[in-house]
Amino acid sequence: MALEIERKFLLRNDSWRRSARGRKYRQGYITAGSGVTVRVRTVEEQGFLTIKGKSSGAARAEYEYLIPVKDAREMLSTLCSGPLIEKTRYLVEYGGFTWEIDEFAGENQGLLVAEIELESEEQDFPRPPWLGREVTGDDRYFNASLVRNPYRNWGSKTA
Questions:
Q1: Which residue among the candidates 25, 29, 90, 141 is catalytic per the annotation?
Q2: What is the pLDDT of residues 35-46, one digit of tens each?
Q3: Which of 24, 26, 104, 120 would disulfide-bridge 111, Cβ 3.0–4.6 Å?
Q4: Across the strands, what pairs with 134?
């Protein structure tokens, strides 16, 4: 079984931008209920179909498949509930690890989340100086949740 172990954090400042490179993402969800999600995503000129299982701590099953970008774009416009997730994903190297920093646009403008993928939930990693509060267990920060309750609708911004 493919297993994804990731931890999510908010950001303390923008100093990470000095070494970042970004790519545009659009994604939507065909289904996102009872802990299982089916996601369609485009990354620049590539398409992906991803199935994710229910989270258990920082881990969950994940299966991802490359699909024709034309099919992905069609699924995004016809099968996915809105709003779609629009973001730029930046890759930042720090302490031998690659961080993914998502800067959201559209309905989730203003939200920035850093993610790190690990080999185990107990794995230690160096904390970059720009890293803020951990939000791994907070469902509001799941991309599938941001479709149902976009960041712009959050009354009191806790990010």
A1: 29
A2: 788 999 999 999
A3: 104
A4: 9
**CB 151 within 8 Å of CB 85:** no
DSSP conformational letter for 132: E
Domains by residue range for the chain, with CATH:
3-153 (2.40.320.10)
The average pLDDT across 134-157 equals 90
Residue partners of 122: CB distance under 8 A and separation at least 6: none
Helices and strands in the chain: count of H runs, count of E runs:
2, 9
C-beta separation of 44 from 134 below 8 A: no
What are the tens digits of pLDDT across the range 66-87? Answer: 999 999 999 999 999 889 999 9
Distance CA 121, CA 57 (A): 8
Closest to 144 in 3D by CA, of 45, 34, 9? 34
Annotated catalytic, 141?
no
Measured distance between the N- and C-terminal CA atoms of the chain, rounded to whole angstroms: 33
Give the list of residues 6+ apart from residue 4 with CB closer than 8 angstroms, or none.
52, 59, 60, 61, 62, 117
Paired tokens of 143? 């991309």
